[in-house]
Automatic annotation (TrEMBL):
<dbReference type="InterPro" id="IPR052186">
    <property type="entry name" value="Hydantoin_racemase-like"/>
</dbReference>
<comment type="similarity">
    <text>Belongs to the HyuE racemase family.</text>
</comment>
<dbReference type="Pfam" id="PF01177">
    <property type="entry name" value="Asp_Glu_race"/>
</dbReference>
<dbReference type="InterPro" id="IPR015942">
    <property type="entry name" value="Asp/Glu/hydantoin_racemase"/>
</dbReference>
<dbReference type="GO" id="GO:0047661">
    <property type="term" value="F:amino-acid racemase activity"/>
</dbReference>
<dbReference type="InterPro" id="IPR053714">
    <property type="entry name" value="Iso_Racemase_Enz_sf"/>
</dbReference>
<protein>
    <submittedName>
        <fullName>Aspartate/glutamate racemase family protein</fullName>
    </submittedName>
</protein>
Length: 219
């Protein structure tokens, strides 16, 4: 069974552990998911400069771990920093959580929206949707209020704020699926999934499923 490397570009070991738990729950029996964390940078990426800097951190993490025999890699920050660079270097399948969740949300031609906490990442997130050829299906982003890092530190407040953003995606934008846009929002994404009649896409699980399809294993 595959050995999967999950790279967290957010410099938080606790967040990496949470992400690994979510990915492992989606993985097939016998698949091992190992997390590695960016050494430099903020504990939560909240703007475009931090996202761009994280691309180099992703490469550093990969190069430090590359000789350990990985079968695939998940880059677990929404915006997919370093994914294209890593694909040219790694020699194994590489999946980003924004890419995976957008592809999942847009299945069957669905219109999809994004609920997230980071207003300063709207431009690169929308660029990612366009790069994937999904701009016509993308219904827009709805944002929570207040400081993203403070909100993310309060699990209940985060879930409720994101729930309101999801509802706006559905009611105001006509979204037929909604992505919870952020790796550190992984637990909130799982909690929100059963609360709505439309699919709520948890990006880390979507990335695990996409990577398994590339590796021809059943999650």
């Amino acid at each position: 069974m595959p050995d999967i490397l999950l790279i967290n570009p957010n410099a938080s070991v606790a967040t990496t552990d949470m992400m690994v738990g979510i990915a492992s729950a989606e993985a097939p029996a016998g698949c091992r998911v190992t997390g590695r964390t960016a050494v430099q940078g903020p504990p939560m990426i909240v703007n475009e400069d931090e996202l761009n800097a994280a691309a180099l951190e992703v490469l550093k993490v990969w190069r430090a771990a590359a000789d350990e025999g990985w079968d695939g890699v998940i880059v677990s920050a929404f915006g997919d920093p370093g994914v294209e660079l890593l694909r040219r270097e790694a020699g194994v399948p590489v999946v980003g959580i924004a890419e995976a969740s957008m592809l999942a949300a847009g299945e069957g031609g669905r219109r999809f929206g994004i609920a997230t906490v980071t207003p300063d990442l709207v431009v690169p997130i929308e660029a990612r949707a366009a790069a994937l050829g999904l701009r016509a299906q993308y219904s827009g982003i709805r944002l929570t209020q207040g400081d993203p890092r403070a909100l993310a530190a309060d699990a209940l407040a985060l879930e409720e704020a994101l729930a309101q953003a999801v509802q706006r995606c559905i009611d105001d934008d006509g979204a037929q699926a909604v992505i919870i846009g952020g790796g550190p929002l992984g637990q909130a994404a799982l909690a929100l999934t059963p609360r709505f009649k439309v699919p709520v896409i948890a990006p880390i699980g979507a990335a695990m499923r996409l990577l398994c399809s590339k590796l021809a294993v059943t999650p």
